[in-house]
Design goal:
350 residues, Rossmann fold, six-stranded parallel β-sheet, 13 helices, 12 strands, globular, glycosyltransferase activity
Amino acid sequence: MACQAKASSLLVLSNGGANQTTTQLLLALGTYIGRVMPYEVRPRGLPSGRVAKLVSALRSEIGNVAALFRHAMVLSHSAAAFSLPTLLAAKLTGRPIILVIWDIYPESLGWASRHRLLSWCLSKLENAAYALSDLVLVNSEDYLQHVRRKGAGNVRVVPMWTVEEPRPALGQPRRPSDPLRLAWAGQINPLRDLPSTVRQVLDSCRGEVELHLFTSSDIPPALVQLAQAEGRLTLKERGFLPLEKLYSELGRLDFGLVSIDPRFDMPFFPSKTMSYLLAGIPVLFEGPRTPALDRLFDADGIGLRVDEVTEERLSALHQAFPERRRRYLERVETEVADFAANLPRLLNRH
């Protein structure tokens, strides 16, 4: 009986708390994998305070290693270094290891060049996790050279999936005289370059702009100054909301804003893009070009780059969005379900 359970179950490790997007994404992936085998998702919520975080992390990792022996294989995600003890235990006991890579650590961290010793240590630990892995999952082709350089061998491209059933996308026409109501959901930091992106939006639109900020981050002074200087821009601080409430509030707005500093030269796929799609609103994006986002905007047509914004294009996108989103989500559903169904074969388990 124990051998049968071991041969057909997956342990999923999350570095996020139970209500964070990372854990919700892994829970959603588990529903696909659950069609093939049982699974268990273990979140890692950390309290405030350095000592408390360290104690909690150690306790969590001990629990993860213990849980490993109830399962046949383990899945972790970037930064995989935080799960290295469990991954080592998996390798020593012959259990396959799957990594989901959303960010390339430590290179994608803004502080990496300023903390060379810490960056070097994290890089070595992260590379060790790549070397231990049997299968690495990435969101698009632009990740491939980076993860292979870090030691990944068996790599599979799987598109970013959704965390729950999508909300209705109304696609109601927006009059040019109405304020453009934009949502920003998630952290605000220098990598996002949000003030510059909002400046570009104002330059592209003739009317008023409302920016609804769903975040626990401090509002950048440059953004506040822009609102004070521009009578057309209104900032509405909405704070951090649980996902259920967030999706409901997002659906009342016109577009979701995603911004990455154009100088950022690492692969990425902002998970908030999928949050906006689930909530039923199209995406406005400013940042570097990537294969996944090029496909999202050019082929799937569910968003616009900020430098392409005109009143006419905004109106056309809003009306066409419901059908375009339906086709896009159907394609993602098919591709992720196909991956899950073939997971045993991808791991060479027959």
